Amino acid sequence: MKVIYNGQIDSRLMKDVINNTLKSRLDRDTDAVYLDADLMSCIGMGSYARQHPLRAINCGIAEQNMVGIACGMASMGFKPVIHSFGTFASRRCFDQVFLSGGYAKNDITIMGSDPGITAVYNGGTHMPFEDMALYRAIPGATVIDISDTSMCESVLDQCFDYPGLKYVRLTRKPTVALYAPGEKFEIGKALVLRDGCDVTLVACGIMVAEAMKASLMLEKEGISAAVIDMFTVKPLDEALLIEFAKRTGAVVSCENHNMIGGLQSAVTALLSENLPVPVGCVAVKEAFGEVGSLDYLRNRFKLTAEEIILQAKRVIGMKK
Fold this sequence. Notes:
- The mean pLDDT is 96.
- The chain is 40% helix and 19% strand.
- By secondary structure, the chain is an alpha/beta fold.
- It has helices at residues 14-28, 40-43, 46-51, 63-75, 88-92, 94-103, 131-136, 149-159, 207-219, 238-248, 263-274, 294-300, 305-318; strands at residues 32-36, 56-58, 79-85, 108-113, 142-145, 165-170, 191-194, 199-203, 225-229, 232-234, 251-258, 279-284.
């Protein structure tokens, strides 16, 4: 895996990678189908839908119905991928997803875009911090938090053929480049971006770049911090996490969502049962979203490299 992180924003927009990946799959796979909740223009699929109305279907502002349609199509052998903003792809249609998707064991992929603070100016009503917790509660679900465009390209295409209910959390906006274009990612396998011996930073989504930044800053202070991209939050790559927790004896989870039910809960549950070590968390704590720029929201909810450093030093100090 070639890591190219240097703190710079990727030249490719995430939404362009999303729609190019979708179009490529739809063009070559007659069983693949895309459904949207009246957000085609936001994701860049509008023109394709007009040209291929039976392959890319606008279900209107009716996420519950869209899930039902997708599950019905899945039961007939199709491979549906559906999209709405994260808040509507989780809370609004959760019962339909739980029953028609998870309980009925239908193979569908749900894209929740602009999760957490990446919703920026759409504000608190469109800013889901709880979406990951909801999907992690569904038995057998796969929950993925995309960290950059190369990962999006590889993982989103895999989802069409990957069995079961999948929730893919991803932004439409520019991201920091982490991986070289064309890299392949295996769902369920975490990625080690940096090795370390003092503390392990386990991150997902946009917080992977912040964890890398924090690791480099800690290095200047003589602290060795490993960085793991735990992009598959469910099922967790348990073996890798335990290996690094043994090696460093301290872990900080970094996530762009509510600390209750997300990556933090997964990490602490695993380690408390298998390898008790000090664990810190950088995540949203008991709050609703609000309107603001990404930089403002990062600082407002303490989703920064500086906060990761504080947590890293705290848990290192707790090691026996």
